[in-house]
């Protein structure tokens, strides 16, 4: 009986916390920052270490000019996880508005390394660099004075090692952007070049629209696509590749060859030369096949990774049938060798390829097998959401709704506002198809809160339109 009461109390506290959090977010969106702070504070009295709540209150403090409190909450959100990107961004913002441009730049830089697809970090770096240039000259010449009390205050024991290298950083991001946008990358560069022509962008269309606004809107859309596609990429690939490389380092003779080869294969694919990536991987595969398992104990694992590389390159080339063949071989080898990470990677790629060609039932089959192998919270959120989307495509709305709810719960665990928005939209769409109009509106409104919290104008407009359309069914 007592255990039942404890469970009921626990559920009650969770529900109360969630309501207080949602109310705080809503008040923030409305611009009622004082009451939003009260809402977040009440929520924190129930769950003092909730990092998303701390970031929310920090944003409110920043809006009303209480910079010290804003910084304090941002730092508290990083207590358990120094790589929590929302906390890093909020800390950088608080430092920036305090005039601590050097430290702000450092945290914008750190956040961008963790989440390079988030535009806020890139813009933060730019504005911090400009502030430094205006105050003391070029930021590349800035030497941070590291004193013991400052190190203690910001908990940065290796601050001197984290010197800024904007050129390298931009190069790395451009490489990623080029990979994700593909043929649209040239369009992006063309639009960026147009923006440099000050006389041209001042012009207007026949309808009176300023060219500068149109071009900026297009660039914003491409940035949104880049962020989305980066999230859509199979998350386990890079982790598995690093795992393979670690095993290669343990070998003696072939180690350097394999390390160079995997880097070359990856570089070809990243640069957009999928054909070159396939050719290189096939050459390496022929060499590895000639080696004995005595020379290379993890031979089958390496072959599986090569099949995965070839499958991904063929996917980019649009040859889905052959891509599936190689991913199936990767899966077979992973099962033989009892390698959970390799199996997870192969199942991911099989599902992704089937979804790409519209065979959603097969995609669901492989992705559902992957669920138990997922390691990270973000990967779990992405996977549950994708399975839900496949069920939507099959008009199986109850299953789509259920997976949307699971995806929202997973996104809530990691405090990812973007995926909370996506998951709630999926649930709302499912409820709409099921004829549950009130519930649909409720979930769309929850998604709208997260869209506003993310400052995502395009998403807000789309969700508002959807809410208006659903409400017509309630009249």
Keywords:
Serine Threonine Protein Phosphatase 5, Tetratricopeptide repeat; mainly alpha; 4 domains; 475 residues
Per CATH, which architecture of the largest domain?
Answer: Alpha Horseshoe
Strand content: under 5%
Helical content (DSSP H or I, runs of 4+): over 70%
Backbone CA Rg: 25 Å
The helix/strand series, from N terminus to C terminus, equals HHHHHHHHHHHHHHHHHHHHHHHH
In one word, what is the shape?
globular
Instruction: Give a quick account of the main beta sheet: strands, pairing sense, barrel closure.
Output: none
Total DSSP E strands: 0
In terms of per-residue confidence, which ranges show pLDDT below 50 for 5 or more consecutive residues?
A: 136-172, 231-242, 244-252
Task: State the CATH topology of the largest domain.
Answer: Serine Threonine Protein Phosphatase 5, Tetratricopeptide repeat
How many helix segments?
Answer: 24
Distance between the termini: 46 Å
Main structural class: mainly alpha
CATH superfamily of the largest domain: Tetratricopeptide repeat domain
Number of domains: 4
Mean pLDDT: 78
**What's the CATH class label of the largest domain?**
Mainly Alpha
């Amino acid at each position: 009986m007592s255990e039942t009461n404890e469970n009921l109390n626990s559920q009650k506290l969770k529900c109360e916390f969630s309501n207080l959090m949602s109310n705080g977010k809503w008040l923030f969106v409305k611009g009622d920052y004082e009451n939003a702070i009260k809402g977040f504070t009440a929520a924190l009295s129930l769950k003092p270490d909730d990092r998303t709540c701390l970031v929310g209150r920090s944003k409110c403090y920043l809006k009303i000019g209480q910079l010290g409190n804003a910084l304090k909450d941002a730092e508290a959100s990083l207590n358990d996880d120094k790589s929590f990107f929302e906390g890093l961004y909020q800390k950088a913002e608080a430092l920036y508005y305090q005039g601590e441009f050097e430290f702000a730049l450092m945290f914008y830089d750190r956040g961008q390394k963790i989440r390079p697809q988030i535009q806020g970090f890139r813009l933060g770096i730019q504005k911090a660099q400009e502030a430094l240039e205006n105050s003391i000259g070029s930021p590349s010449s800035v030497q941070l004075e590291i004193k013991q009390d400052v190190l203690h205050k910001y908990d940065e024991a290796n601050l001197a090692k984290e010197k800024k290298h904007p050129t390298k950083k931009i190069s790395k991001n451009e490489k990623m952007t080029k990979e994700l946008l593909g043929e649209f990358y040239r369009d992006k560069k063309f639009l960026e070049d147009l923006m440099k022509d000050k006389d041209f962008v001042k012009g207007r269309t026949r309808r009176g629209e300023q060219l500068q606004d149109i071009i900026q809107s297009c660039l914003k859309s491409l940035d949104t696509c880049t962020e989305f596609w980066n999230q859509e990429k199979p998350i386990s690939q890079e982790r598995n590749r690093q795992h393979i490389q670690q095993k290669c380092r343990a070998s003696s003779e072939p180690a350097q060859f394999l390390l160079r080869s995997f880097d070359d294969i990856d570089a070809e694919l990243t640069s957009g030369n999928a054909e070159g990536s396939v050719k290189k991987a096939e050459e390496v595969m022929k060499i590895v096949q000639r080696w004995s398992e005595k020379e290379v104990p993890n031979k089958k694992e390496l072959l599986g990774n090569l099949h995965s590389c070839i499958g991904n390159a063929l996917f980019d080339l649009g040859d889905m049938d052959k891509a599936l063949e190689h991913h199936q071989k990767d899966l077979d080898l992973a099962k033989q060798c009892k390698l959970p990470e390799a199996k997870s990677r192969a199942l991911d790629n099989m599902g992704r390829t089937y979804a790409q060609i519209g065979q959603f039932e097969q995609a669901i089959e492989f992705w559902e097998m992957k669920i138990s192998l997922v390691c990270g919270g973000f990967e779990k959120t992405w996977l549950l959401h994708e399975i839900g989307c496949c069920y939507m495509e099959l008009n199986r709305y109850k299953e789509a709704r259920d997976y949307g709810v699971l995806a929202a719960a997973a996104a809530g665990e990691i405090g990812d506002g973007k995926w909370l928005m996506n998951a709630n939209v999926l649930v709302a769409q499912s409820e709409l198809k099921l004829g549950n109009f009130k519930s649909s509106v409720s979930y769309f409104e929850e998604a709208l809160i997260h869209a506003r919290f993310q400052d995502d104008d395009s998403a807000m407009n789309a969700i508002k339109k959807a809410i208006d359309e659903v409400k017509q069914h309630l009249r």
